[in-house]
Every structure is written in C-alpha cells, then in structure tokens.
Amino acid sequence: MFSRFRPIDCDLHPMVPGMRALTPYMDEFWRDQVEERGITTLDTQSWPVRSPKTIREDWRSEDGRGAATVGLLQAQSLDRLGTDLGILNPLYGVQLVFNEDMAAAFTRALNDWTRAEWLDRDPRLRASIVLPLQSIEASVAEIERLAPDPRFVQVLVLVMGEMPLGRRQYWPILEACVRHGLPLGIHAGSAYRHPQTSVGWTSYYLEEYAANQQAFQSTLASLLTEGAFSKFPDLRVVLLESGVTWLPSFLWRLQKTWKGVRFEVPWVDRLPTEIVRDQVRLTVQPLDAPEDGAIVQRVMDQLRSDALLLWASDWPHWQYDGDAAMPPGIPESLWPKLMRDNPLATYGRLREGVVA
Amino acid sequence: MRGRSTGSRAVARIVVAPVGEIPAGGRKLVEAEGKRIVVFNLGGEFYALSDRCPHQGGSLCAGLVSGHVESREPGVYHYARRGEMIRCPWHYWEFDIRTGKSWFDPKRVQVRQFPAQVTTGAALVEGPYVAETFPVKVEDDYVVVDA
C-alpha cells in the first residue's frame, strides 16, 4: 500500500492479553504474588478494551480482544501497509500501580515481553522502553538495563502522571534519554493520580479521551517553562496520539504571554515556537482536522515546518477504515517526509544500519 | 517649551525640563508635535522613547522600571542593568531604555527612540532654537529631545 515510501510507523500498540502473559518475565516472588493476589489484568480505562476506539472492529479476535500477537500486527498492519519499520508502544497499565517495587517488576516484565514476543519475532520492529515512573531511580535503571539493545529506540511515559513532566525531579530521566539517544515519547493516557481534567474527574470516556489534549498542552508548557528543553538541547520529545491541530493556537497563547513574563523563565531565551520546532515531534494519528486538504494545509502553514510530523497508524486503535492509514488532507508530497525522513531524523537509533 | 529648528529638517527640538527636574532613575512625559515622549534619566544620561508601546499602545511612562535577567541554565538567574528596562503596564513587554528594543524580538519589535541630550541654557537662548513658552535661563542646563 505504502511500501514505495518505505514507511516507518511510529505508534503501534501491542496489547498484553493478561497478567499471565507477563509472569514468565517476573522473578518467583512477583510471579507468585500475581497468582496469590489474583491480579488478572492491568487493562486501564484509558483504553477500555470494549470501546470501539481501542480496537478496530475488524481487528478484534473472537474473544473481543486484539493486538495480542505479532502475527496479528503483521497481517493487519505491517504487511498490508508495506511498513518498513514500526515502533511498539505498549500501553498496559503498569503506570497505575502504586507500589514502587511492584511497578518496577511489572514494567520490567512488560518490556521483556515486548522484546521476546515481538522484537525477536519480526526484524521490522522496534520498541519504546516503558518507564516505571513511580520511581525516578527505577526509571533510570530501566533505561540503563535496556538501552544496550538498539531495538529500543525511545522511552515511553503517559501524558497524565504524578507531576508535570518538565519538573526537575524528572531530569535524571531526561539526562539518561539524551545520553542514550532516546527520544522521550509521551502518549495519551492517565496514571489516575489526579483527575483527568484540571476541573475535576470526568464522568464519561468521551470526556476523558478528549481531555488528553489539555494534558498534552500542560505537559508541553511544563517541559518548556521548567527549562527542560534549554537544559537538554539534544532532547527530542515525541507526542503520541496527541492530535496535532491544537498546537498552533496553544503556542500562540503561550508565546504571547511569554513576551510579557519571560523574566520568570529567563532560561527560555528564544521564542517558544522555535524551541518546539527544534525539539518536539507529533504523530499524525489522530490529526484532529477535517478532511479538507485546504484546511489541513493551513494548519501545516501555521506549524511553519514540514519536519514536525511523524506518520503513525496507531494500530489497533480505530483511527481509520480500510488501509487509509494516512489522515486525509495531508498532501502526498509530504508523505515521504512524514513516513520516512522525519522518523529517521527523530530517532537516532533508527538510522543505525538503515538505508535512508 | 518648544523650539523649532530653523533648518530645513522637519525635526522639532523640544526643551523637556531643567536637568535637575528629572533625577537619576526618574522619567518625564512630554507632549509635543503631536507626539507623547517619555524621557528617562539613567545615572545622568538621558534617553527618550515614544510613550506608545508598539504592541497595543500602552503608556510606557506608566510602566515598571526593572533590570534585565538572563540565565545560562535553568534555576540560575543573572540579574543586571537594574533600572534600565521599562515594562509596558498593559502586557509587561520589556524594552531596553537605552535602545528602545524589545528583548524578545529586538529587530522587529522596538519602541521609537528620539535623540536626547543636555544643552546649556546659553546655547538654547543664543542658538537656532527659540523656546516658546519655557523660561530658559542662561545659567542652567536643560534636557533637550529632537522629535
């Protein structure tokens, strides 16, 4: 379908079928704990399994689940779309666990499951290192443990966590990202430490899914104002399943206000839009735009760059029908950049051993 | 208070005030030739800017005078040039009193600057400039702005 572009899919979601899939990757204590406590699943309400959005209907297995094996990924996405490389972003609810030690053990198991059951089974696959953000030390340790494997090309956190992600307590993690050439991937979803909106808890899934956009805005503002981008100019941040079209209007407001109060953040020493353009990337599924190409082009003009956007199918989330995995309205002239050039420029580790 | 150059340039030489009337760190607003101009005394040097913020027209004379803060890394504040930055009272955009330039976009966003200097009363009385309503004394010094 897209093979002539040798596309790189930047957001694929293997779904853990249940905790028993992970116990082989735990030590005996945690393996027994899972059984003794009867922990059957870490599915979270950020992606309710039965929600139409979570798994496209024709990609569901008979049990109503999906995305459980590499075979499904190959048949439903990689082979159909002609994907050259794909980045796995597992979204199992390890971030919701409160016990730091349990969180670290479950997250290690998740990452090892991804490595053994996905990366080892298809050479086209790469993955993100899921972080046990409940502990900054454990997060750094997990990066150090897995970074020697070049198939891990990014680290992955949720956009709604314990604290705004720019806070300086987190900087040892950012430092480790930069040291190993790993972008910080921030995906939609909540660890439920706080209400999913700044005005309180939501009643409906619809509210919650839409609220991710607010969280991305606040997270971007946090990284910028705390000085994370200034401290780590080589840091790349990738917003995953964030939507795109909110970015220009949000940056307009942020930058306008910065002009008046930049003295409180003097390390933000150039236009915030320029910093974002240099250090932030976004996946295009969803794009959050009408199908009118002229309107999409206006958004592109407002972004003032064709280097910001990365193609992603968001498999198995239901963002499109059939094989229409590129959001309508994005001109085909941009496809080579979105599908190949921009991912290669963003993910240093993808470039190793790959023909540009 | 105003004098008009006898030359061909359409520049008015405005006698703002006796030097002693604008103390160091002080400022004075003058209106002349249809312009509102704010004159600052920075340690004995005088600078004149349009009183109109290039953003939306706020009166800079009513703004806060502060210093300039820079940072070589997050959490480190290098504060210098106290008293040399004026912030518009409306949206706090900051401008360098010495140049009129904004800090955040000095090429494109700046306040119009006018030449200001100190001139003797004798020169004003005898020179090509005629003070119209301002009582100029030969023995005093005056702040003068070309606008």
UniProtKB/TrEMBL annotation, chain A:
Q: What range(s) does the Amidohydrolase-related domain occupy?
A: 8-349
SUPFAM superfamilies listed in its UniProt record: Metallo-dependent hydrolases
Which range is the signal sequence, renumbered to this chain?
Answer: none
Q: Which Gene3D superfamilies match?
A: Metal-dependent hydrolases (3.20.20.140)
> Does the entry feature the keyword GTP-binding, yes or no?
no
Q: Which UniProt keywords apply?
A: Lyase
Name the chain's protein: Amidohydrolase
Q: Which organism is it from?
A: Belnapia mucosa
**Organism ancestry:** Bacteria, Pseudomonadati, Pseudomonadota, Alphaproteobacteria, Acetobacterales
